[in-house]
Amino acid sequence: MSNNRVIIFDTTLRDGEQSPGASMTRDEKLRIARQLEKMRVDVIEAGFAIASPGDFAAVKAIADTIKESTVCSLSRALDADIDRAGEALINANSGRIHTFIATSPIHMKYKLQMEPDQVVENAVRAVKRARNLIDDVEFSLEDASRSELDFMCRIIEKVIDAGARTINIPDTVGYAVPQEFGHTITQLLNRIPNADKAIFSVHCHNDLGLAVANSLSALSAGARQVECTINGLGERAGNASLEEIVMALRTRKDVLGLETGIETTQIVPASRLVSSITGFVVQPNKAIVGANAFAHESGIHQDGMLKNRETYEIMTAQDVGWNTNRMVLGKLSGRNAFRARLEELGTSFNSDTELNDAFARFKDLADKKSEIFDEDLIALVSEARVGTGAERFRLSSLKVTSQTGETPVANLVVMVDGVEHQVEGTGSGPVDAALKAIESVAESGSSLQLYSVNAITSGTDSQGEVTVRLEKGGRIVNGLGADTDIIIASAKAYIHALNMLDANIEKAHPQV
Ligand code: KIV
Ligand code: ZN
User: Fold this and answer.
1) Last residue of some domain: 214, 244, 278?
2) In a domain, 302, yes or no
3) Rounded to an integer, what distance in angstroms lies between the CA atom of residue 478 and that of residue 493?
4) Separation of CA 18 and ligand 1 centre (Å)
5) Which structural domain, as residue segments, surrounds residue 210?
6) 425 lines ligand 1 (CB under 6 A)
7) C-beta separation of 55 from 48 below 8 A
8) Do 358 and 475 fall into the same domain?
9) Same structural domain for residues 380 and 404?
């Protein structure tokens, strides 16, 4: 690999998933992993194998399936974590164990309650143990941006000797500023005697909105791997956004002199897939992947664009995958065309039953909507996979009455544990009435944190994609529902969230 090639390490499925409410199922993660592979991401961090049986299964399924990208599992610097990661990666074509320990004075004293020497000892032991399982080992210094330089030099030298091939410098709390962060990388590369034996990586959080700027500064200083997520998904304010880093490197190669192997036309499909699966809507003015990112509204801009596109545009919408491959399906499209298009969009079916079920939903939708776009297909499949067949709550039917000057009333039939319940609710609007009716039978006691509706495509016949975020006892879940009728979409999303709360999946957090 040439010295100006940057390794793109995507952590949407691990750090991105740590965002409250962004939990994904094994199948959803697999769909995203396939899209990341298609986009030619170098390393996919598939999860934190020891966090839960579900996480283990997802990392394993991705490691078993993905062939072109390296598949990585996170693990703390603990024997059990490392062994579990190794187990999940056993069939990987190219696998990596990513182990980490905190190195800042505040984390070592209060969180780990360890002396610095003990931290070094644990780090070295973890790297050696991981190297006994796999060749490709990455070591991260959690909270590096608040760690002492001398201590970082000491621990990094030791873990490289122990066999770490990649050294990751995270700005865990999003505290760094670009000049300082770049300088830290320069210092590490100059001062550590065996620095040339490893690739230096950065992993920036966006608490001050500087994650991308800090990452670029570190790359300019000599880091050659960058950790990032699609749409900047991630804990708190998120991680550095993959699309922004990749397009900045590409668009300003004249200044930065670096390149990636990313197939940029797959960026927008990846963004849409992640947004549809997690329910985290992309803000319209988000760089690269926001709906308005390439929309030129003002007369002066439009005039300039017509004369010469480059007057106001530094990259094209097509470069990042807008409007490419928008093959439209309709009422007369057959099963093969449907399956082929979904495969191109990164989704394959596990069984004929699954394909038939999705195809039946597609036909229903085609009856209501004359043209079906890629976005509709993605939503349709996400929705088909929302149910596992073993849910407590199911929507059988819904009727709402809404009239000017009258209180809206919703009448629903909801199945709870296989028993039919007829419920009625009133509310300030039809959605409110429907959700209140469902809650009257579910009695979940959860609190609603977010309700959002997003039109999947343009036009008044668009499907509405609804996200309902519920919180109960500190657990947060996102329910999703899509339909051309937004009241039905809302009821589906609420019921999906209730089923997720009911599943009560316990999960460990890597940093705890
Ligand atoms: O932000 C962080 O420090 C992390 C590490 C586990 C790499 O996510
Ligand atoms: Zn992180």
Assistant:
1) 278
2) no
3) 8
4) 11
5) 7-278
6) no
7) yes
8) no
9) no
Least confident of 87-96, 185-194, 378-387: 378-387
The CATH number that applies at residue 167 is 3.20.20.70
Report the sign of the C-alpha dihedral through residues 125, 128, 133, 138, in that order.
positive
Whether residues 345 and 451 share a domain: the answer is no
Looking at the fold, whether 148 and 14 belong to one and the same domain comes out as yes
Distance 15 CA to ligand 2 centre (A): 6
Atom of ligand 1 at shortest range from CA of 100: 6
Residues 397 and 371 in one domain: no
Residue 336 C-alpha to ligand 1 middle, in angstroms?
Answer: 43
Any ligand 1 atom below 6 A from CB of 100 = yes
17 lines ligand 1 (CB under 6 A): no
Summarised one tens digit per residue, pLDDT across range 422-452 is: 999 999 999 999 999 999 999 999 999 999 9
Domain termination site, one of 386, 403, 426? 386
- Whether ligand 1 lies within 6 angstroms of the CB of 510 is answered as yes
- The pLDDT of residue 427 is 97
Domain assignment of residue 289, yes or no: no
- What's phi and psi for 316, nearest 5 deg? -100, 155
Is any ligand 1 atom within 6 A of the Cβ of residue 369? no
How remote is the C-alpha of 6 from its chain's centroid?
21
In the chain, the number of structural domains is 3
Distance (Å, whole) CA 137 – CA 116: 22
The position carrying tokens 């019921």 is 495
Residue carrying the six token digits 């070094």: 120
185 within domain boundaries: yes
Tell me the CA distances in angstroms from 13 to 33, 58, 244, one per residue in order. Answer: 8, 9, 18
The answer to whether residues 273 and 356 belong to one domain is no
Nearest-CA residue for ligand 1 atom 8 is 15
CATH number of the domain that residue 437 is part of: 3.30.160.270
- Residue 163 CB less than 6 A away from ligand 1: no
pLDDT in tens, 329-369: 888 888 888 888 888 776 778 788 888 888 988 998 888 88
Do the beta carbons of residue 122 and residue 77 sit within 8 Å? yes
Q: How far is the CA of 7 from the centre of ligand 1 (A)?
A: 17
- Based on the domain organization, do 349 and 402 belong to the same domain? no
The helix/strand/coil state of 33 is helix
Has residue 301 been placed in a domain? no
What lies within 8 Å, CB to CB, of 352 at 6+ separation is none
Predicted confidence band at 2 (pLDDT cuts at 50, 70, 90)? confident
- Ligand 1 centroid from CA 202, angstroms: 10
Distance CA 438, CA 498 (A): 10
Helix count and strand count (H, E) for the chain: 17, 14
Tell whether 477 and 406 lie within a shared domain: yes
**What are the backbone angles phi and psi of residue 305, rounded to the nearest 5°?**
-60, -40
129 lines ligand 1 (CB under 6 A): no
Does residue 140 have its Cβ closer than 6 Å to ligand 1?
yes
How big is the chain by its Cα radius of gyration, in Å?
24
Does ligand 1 come within 6 angstroms of the Cβ of 15? yes
